[in-house]
Amino acid sequence: MAIAVIGGLITSTVLSLLVIPAVFTYVDDAGNWVKRLFERLRRVKPQAADHQQPGR
User: Fold this and answer.
1) How far apart are CA 35 and CA 33, in angstroms?
2) Does the pLDDT value for residue 49 go beyond 60?
3) Coil, strand or helix: which one is 55?
4) Which is higher by pLDDT, 34 or 43?
5) Cβ-based neighbours of 6, under 8 Å, separated by 6 or more
6) 16 has pLDDT over 60
7) Using CA atoms, how far apart are residues 1 and 29, in angstroms rounded to an integer?
């Protein structure tokens, strides 16, 4: 039983200190990338409408 308790403590420590912060960093970076992508698309879209030919 002591082996299971020690293994659980080690596993939870590794998850808490290494895995969860790394996953959070990747998710946060991905969210920022998507945000920048949508902002860039929003800026490009009105400029594309300015380049249309008159009469269309």
Assistant:
1) 5
2) no
3) coil
4) 34
5) none
6) yes
7) 41
Dihedral sign for Cα 6, 17, 21, 18, please: negative
Query: What are the structure tokens assigned to 48, written together?
Result: 């594309």
- The Cα–Cα gap between 51 and 46 comes to 9
Say what the pTM is: 0.60
Helix (H) or strand (E) holding 53: none
C-alpha 31/C-alpha 42 separation (Å) is 17
Number of C-alpha atoms within 13 angstroms, CB side, residue 38?
5
For the chain, how big is the Rg over CA atoms in Å? 24
As given in the structure block, the two tokens for residue 38 are 């949508």
